[in-house]
Structure formats: C-alpha cells, structure tokens
Write a structure and sequence with these properties.
The protein is α/β, with parallel strands linked by helices. The chain contains 23 helices and 17 strands. It is about 40% helix and about 15% strand.
Length: about 575
C-alpha cells in the first residue's frame, strides 16, 4: 500500500458521501489532501489563497446547496484564519467539513515551523473535532480514519447542521513519486438513515387544547432558507385562521397584503396601550435569529402567556425571547401543515365563518400599512436625492425575478429590511446572520454565485467590502455575481447608533474614513466597473447592470454620510410624532 493511500481514500469517501465541492488554500503540509481532491474525477475544487476568504466562500456554497462543502488548508496560523467562517457556520447552522493539515504531534512545542496545537482548535464552535493518526501501518488506523470521515460528514448534516473539524497530521513525503499510483481504493460508506419526528397523539391533543384556549395567536418567523411550501402554509394560516405572521427580509417573508413586514418601524417607541393590544396569548416561533431589535424588544416586553418554538432538534433550548413554554421537536413545515389541516377540519365541523377571530390580524395589518406609508413619506423628500436608503429601494425594485440576494451586515441588511421585497419577485435572501459580522460577506456571496446559475446580487457597505477584498483575489469571479457597493466613506452604522453618534471621537475611532474607491479592485479582478452618484442615473444603469454578461459586475454608489444621517433622523422623528399623536 502506498504510504499516502489512506489520504487518497478520503477524497473518494467525500464523494461517496455526497460532497461534490472542495475549497483549497495552497500549502505544502496539506499537499497530500490537495492532490487527493484535485485528482479526483468527480470533485469540483476551488482554490482560494486567503484561508479566511476560503472559509466564507465554502460557507456561501453550502448555504446555497444545503450540502456540506469541504475546506482544506495547511498547518499553523492558516488554520486559525478559518475561525470567523467556522463560528458563522456554527451559529448559522451551515454544514462545513474542515480538513486541516498538521505536523505530527511529537513536533509540537519544539520550535518547528508552522506548528501550533490544532487539536480542538475551534473549541465549542464545531459540532465535533477529530484528530487522525499520522501513521497508517496498522489496519486499525485505516479503519479509524474511514470511520471518522463517515461520522464527520453525517454529523455536519444532522440538525442543527454545522461545521465539523478533522485534523490531519501528515509526515513527509507529501508528494507521490512519478511511478507511485495515486488512485483511491474501494471505500466503505456508512450512512445514517433519516428519521421523521412524529409527536404522540396525546401530545398533539394537548397542543390543540392550548391552541383553542388562546384568544390571540401570533407566528413570528426568524431567519430561514427560502421554502415556497412553508410560505404557502403560513399564508393560509394567516388568511384563513386570522393569525398575524410577522417576519423580516432574512425570514423570506416578502411584502403582500397579508404578512407583517414593517414591524421594525411600528414597534419602535410603542406605548403601553398599543403594546398590550398587540400582545399574543400564544406565540409560535420558527427559524433562527431575528434581525431587528424592536421586534425582539416587543416580544420580551409584552411576552406571550404561552410560547412554542418549533425546531427539529432539542439539544439546545432557544429561549432568546425569555418566554418559552414548549420546545416542539418537529420539522416546521410538517408541523404547520398538520396544524392547518386540523384547524381547517375543526372549522368545517363548526361551520365557523365568523370574522371576529381576524380582529387581531387586522390590528397588526393596520399598523403595518401605516408604517409603509411612513417609510414612503420618508423617502419622498429624497426623490431625486441619492442616499444609501433611496439607492437600496431602487435596487430592490429592479432585482430580476427569482434571483438571489445576499445582504451584507451593518446598514445594508437593515435598509433592505426597511424597504422589503415584493412577493411576486420570488427573491431568495441570504445573509451571515449567525454571528452577524462584516468579515466574509463578499466571500460568502462569491460562494453563493459559484453554486447557482441564477443572478446573485450582493448589497454591501464600503467597510465590509474593503475588509474582504481577497474574495476577488482568486480568479475567475463567477460571472453571475453582481456587487452593489454603498460607499459613504465610513462605518456608517456608528452614525446611526445613539451612543457613538453623540461622541466627539465618532469619525476617528468608530467610523474610520478611508477615502478608497473600488475601481482598482474591480480592475484587478477583471470586473465590469460602474460608478454612480445620482439617483436618476442609478435608475437608468440598473437594467443593463442586471443583464447576463460574461463577467461579474460591480456598481459603486457614492453617497454623503451626513445626508444619509439626516434622512434616518427624519425617519425616527416621524415615528416619534406618530406615537405622540396616538397618545393624544
């Protein structure tokens, strides 16, 4: 057996376990792993020189495919550079398989180059960490390697999905000789059979009793992948049962005549009487984290008497709203479809066509429509004036139907949430909202574009863009990527937050102006570059910008941060005036 045969076999096992994509950062110690995947006929391998960017590119690929993507890097500090993407994958519940090359452990603390303690390096931010043997002479070690890889790939996909780490100590020689075969042997695949969670009949009966006892029911949707079937059943529950469904842009909840999408506006500065009128007796939550503070604050300040959270696994209690009474281990779609079916049947038996149960829904919808008018009023004075917010509004209106939208953190995702998306466009939205950092937003969008034949639009601010320029280093950039860069020459969000916004050190220590433009970066990456500094120009540019082309495109929009601030302050003032008028 060639000395590297167990490493070669890893590539075949990845493929047999359903992994088709691998992101590799070049290195010497990792050469056996790299050659194994590069020479495999059925694995697609992407090379990213920067490990931090590589991790986020793999994250974006896995977010779109909902399958594990493998990442390979060399030993030492290279491994630590994966950490930001690892923690985002962990809290965002995205499956990644991290294969990190290492020195044999006897060389640790011996001042050998690129040698650090990599065993368990990601701590509690991976689902599990494996450490493979460096010697393969005994048959048990080869069995152990195969078992660990099988288990790691399975574990990355079990709910909640997440990153799994395999540390791979490697001895020289790293490269096969010219006459040495480099072909995988037959490997043994160990699959785990899927199961379906079914609630016992007595449990379901108790849940239906609680439902019947609740006068005002609210469904709040956190961050979830796009699922038309789930959106359809949510709409039926709202339409037919009079249940408000509140969500945000990262919840895939788009604007229509039913869903509640403006909660961040009308829940701001809520008075006690209005808050109590919106308070649910039963709250159902699905999905991961919520984006906006106002929605979370409302649900904590006016807690439901009963709160069900529906998720497939029960290993952790998600009680972020501090009101949870039942954790229901179920697939949200299956649970809600059965719920609707049973409620619809009961309504049929009762001959129930009374509109009174819809009063709670109408209360939420009325405030939602008022908030829509308030936002339109805020943007109206800026008609003809280019601001970050008005630019986002125009961009979202021009997005091609059924395309993908990736939202960078900080202000872009918040502006997009305030604007919302029209339901008929069927836009799939993604964002790094597991940890919500600005690092890796560009790389994640590159990864998403690599895994889709649809147009992928990234909406990103200047600090996040320049922080992650290495995403564009490893050519070619996928031609279906469209980057919309909002460049206000600062960390704009700090001007919007009351605390730092009032400090004399705002610009120097928080905003950190830079004076950069993206033109040189676009030229280096061979992107088609366009600049815009006027709103009417933006409207005329976008149809061509979103056309299919052989190269990726970057549209840089420059705005004045002080004008942006004035517009946001005016928006906040209108909310305060609206609340004051209600109180009077």
């Amino acid at each position: 057996m060639p000395i590297l045969q167990p490493i070669v076999n890893i590539a075949e096992l990845l493929y047999r376990k359903g992994i088709t994509d691998v992101v590799v950062s070049p290195g010497s110690r990792s050469a056996p792993l790299t050659l194994a995947v590069a020479r495999h006929p059925h694995l697609r391998v992407r090379v990213m020189a920067d490990e931090r960017s590589a991790g986020f590119v793999a994250l974006g690929m896995a977010m779109q495919s909902r399958r594990p993507v493998a990442v390979i890097c060399t030993s030492g500090s290279a491994v630590y550079n994966l950490a930001p993407a690892v923690v985002e994958a962990f809290f965002g519940q995205v499956p990644l398989l991290l294969l990190t090359a290492d020195r044999p452990h006897e060389w640790l603390y011996q001042q050998d180059g690129q040698t650090i303690n990599q065993v368990g390096i990601f701590g509690s931010h991976v689902k599990r960490s494996y450490d493979l043997p460096a010697d393969y002479t005994h048959p048990d070690t080869r069995w152990f390697i195969d078992r660990c890889v099988n288990e790691a790939v399975n574990l990355s996909q079990w709910h909640p999905a997440g990153p799994v780490h395999i540390n791979v100590p490697l001895r020289e020689p790293f490269y096969p000789g010219s006459d040495e075969p480099f072909l995988a042997e037959p490997v043994r695949v160990i699959d785990t059979c899927p199961t379906e969670l079914t609630l016992p009949t007595d449990t379901w009966r108790d849940l239906m009793t609680e439902w019947e006892q609740s006068e005002r029911t609210l469904i709040a949707v956190g961050q979830i992948p796009y699922d038309p079937a789930l959106l359809a059943v949510l709409r039926k529950l709202s339409d037919d049962m009079g249940i408000p469904v509140v969500g945000e842009i990262v919840s895939q909840i788009a604007r229509n005549e039913v869903f509640i999408t403006r909660s961040d506006t009308f829940l701001s500065g809520l008075d006690e009487q209005t808050g109590q009128s919106l308070q649910p007796t039963l709250l159902l939550t699905i999905g991961n984290s919520f984006l906006t503070r106002n929605l979370k604050t409302f649900l904590r300040q006016f807690p439901a008497h009963r709160h069900w959270h529906i998720q497939p696994a029960t290993d952790r209690i998600n009680d972020s709203l501090q009101s949870l009474t039942k954790l229901i281990p179920a697939d949200p779609l299956s649970f809600l479809e059965k719920l609707y079916s049973d409620l619809d049947y009961q309504r049929f038996l009762r001959g129930d066509d009374d509109d009174e149960p819809h009063a709670f829904l109408h209360r939420w919808q009325t405030l939602d429509r008022q908030a829509t008018r308030l936002i339109e009023k805020t943007l109206r004075p800026a008609s003809g004036q280019l601001t970050d917010w008005s630019a986002v509004q125009v961009i979202l209106e021009h997005l091609p139907e059924q395309s993908l939208l990736h939202l960078a953190n900080s202000m872009p995702v918040r502006y997009a949430n305030l604007c919302g998306l029209a339901e008929e466009k069927q836009i799939r939205v993604s964002a790094n909202r597991g940890v919500s950092g600005i690092d890796g937003c560009l790389s994640t969008a590159v990864g998403a574009a690599l895994m889709s034949d649809k147009l992928v639009t990234l909406l990103i601010g200047d600090v996040a863009f320049f922080y992650d320029r290495n995403a564009l280093w490893s050519a070619p950039v996928p031609p279906n990527l469209r980057i919309v860069l909002l460049n206000n020459d600062s960390g704009h969000i700090f001007r919007m937050i009351d605390g730092p916004g009032r400090q004399p050190e705002l610009e120097t220590y928080f905003e950190t102006p830079h004076g950069y433009t993206a033109q040189n970066t676009a030229d280096d990456a061979k992107l088609v570059y366009t600049h815009c500094d006027a709103l009417d120009t933006l409207t005329t540019l976008l149809p061509d910008f979103f056309q299919t082309s052989p190269s990726a495109r970057l549209l840089e929009i420059t705005t004045d941060k002080r004008v942006n601030q004035d517009q946001f302050v005016a928006y906040k003032m209108q909310i305060r005036n609206l609340q004051a008028n209600k109180a009077n």
